[in-house]
Design a protein that fits this description.
Length: 84
């Protein structure tokens, strides 16, 4: 797996911080973030087109907006890999 570290949320401590990676080989973004509280989880599930609970094999991850540049960078890395 070709995982490239992109960045860590600069406003959190180094033990519990949202992080972004790009796996250019698999063409995927990898995100570490905070788990939502039960109200946020329910709101997300209720607003989805399927209106179904999130499966155990998936998760809702909260990422702060200040990390958008890092997410864009990870998207760019994956897109560049598609052009190779």
């Amino acid at each position: 797996m070709a995982v490239e570290f992109v960045g860590i949320d600069p406003d959190t401590d180094r033990d519990h911080c949202p992080t972004v990676w790009a796996n250019v080989e698999a063409q995927e973004l990898l995100l570490q973030g905070w788990k939502p509280d039960s109200a946020t989880q329910a709101e997300c599930e209720g607003s989805s087109p399927a209106n179904a609970p999130v499966p155990d094999s998936e998760a809702i991850v909260r990422i702060p907006a200040r990390m958008i540049p890092m997410i864009r960078e990870a998207c760019d890395a994956v897109e560049r890999a598609q052009l190779r």
